[in-house]
Design brief:
single chain, alpha+beta, 5-stranded antiparallel beta sheet, 3-stranded antiparallel beta sheet, 7 helices, 8 strands, elongated
Length: about 280
Amino acid sequence: MNDLLSQSQDYLNAETIQMLGSYVLSIVAFVLILVVGRYVATKVRDVIRGGLDKPKVDTTLTKFAGNFAYYAIFLLAIFAGLETVGVETASFVAVLAAASFAVGLALQGTLANFAAGIMLLIFRPFKVDDYVEIADETGFVRDISLFFTRLTTQDNRLIIVPNGDIFGSTIRNIFAHDVVRVDCDVGTDYPADIDATREVLLEAARNVDDRVTEKGEQAALTALGGSSINWQVRVWATPDDYFRLKQELTRQVKYKLDEAEIGIPYPQMDVHLDELNGSNEAA
């Protein structure tokens, strides 16, 4: 009887040791998978950041791509480690999918801005310091983030525009090229000679210093208005000189027209009263 109890006890001890050894091995494997997964995730993140770390690639995009790869690989490592220790991960995946769906519905506007931010960072329709017209707002681009874009207006006001509004509307990048045209719209009196007026306006354009002379200058007749002959005087400038030369061009146009005694009319209306023949009879 004692021999039977001793054998049973030895069998239980051996089974317990085997079970503990199996648990220890599973825990060691779990830890090793996490360590290796984190190492691989870190290396992949560094490789992505290094490959995208170029002057033409936005810093925000490189950080996002690297962090996304890091967390994706590390999450897969966690699931693999849980499977190793015998934890069923299917329920976790289902809960995670349901939670992601609920969060997506609650934050659909934010996710739309996020997706638009990714598209803006990839296609780069504008960059920092560009002067743009986006979503009915105009200003200098100061920052492009994943959810919104910051603009600074000429009067130094900060405007924050959601990326979803930007990507879904027309984008006008005024300073996208090295040279930009400077326009001045002006109206002149009808009695003034058209050819003489054109020469005066061209002389005003030639008097603008620091313009891009290779592009020339133009004085275009645009319309015969209700009270004036409408012109558009054009010169070309670099983006840094745009606002200064626009003011100088307007100044020169006014001075040259005054020197030539060519008037700049203001809108007016002539009212003619016709005298009625006869007298009104009392009803």
